Amino acid sequence: MLDQLLQWDRDTFIYLNSLGIENHDVFWSYVTNFSTWIPLFILFIVLIFKAYPKKEAFWVLGTVLITLIVVGMTTYLVKEWVARLRPNNTEEINTLIRILKSPDGYSFFSGHSSSSFSITTSVFLFLKNKWKWSWLFYIWPLLFALSRIYVGVHYPLDLIVGALAGIFFAIFFHRLYHKMERTN
Fold this sequence. Notes:
Layout (H helix, E strand, L loop, with lengths): L1 H17 L6 H7 L6 H14 L2 H29 L28 H17 L11 H12 L5 H28 L1
Helix pairs in contact: 2-6, 3-4, 4-5, 4-7, 5-6, 5-7
């Protein structure tokens, strides 16, 4: 069963990666860089400070930051434990795929996916009742995660599990925040 799932993952990755068009390489290379999204992070901070009193806004941002730190540590530990090679480093398929980035390290699960979904879900949960359009923030992690297939460094399951991990931790820490808030 696991072998079938991994084969599906490889085949799906190869198919999706092969859909890449050279004219779009610059766009996807730009999207996949974390620094590209700094203006969005600034927007998140501004919106949080507009939605909450100053002291509470700092607590909200602290919760988002703690979530991100825990997600980052968990991602690192799982990558080291599972030790799945990235597609660009896998000899069986790296000649069949388009490779625009060549990071070392392991693939499962995606740090780009887990961190972007954790930040977005945290911000969404804190702002959904204050900004009706906050669901649009999910465009960022979707593009960010999909870019990892396009540039040749993550399988679909890496992205799916990363997204689920990020969402899980964001919900957990959001609930913990409100539980702590009620006790104060």
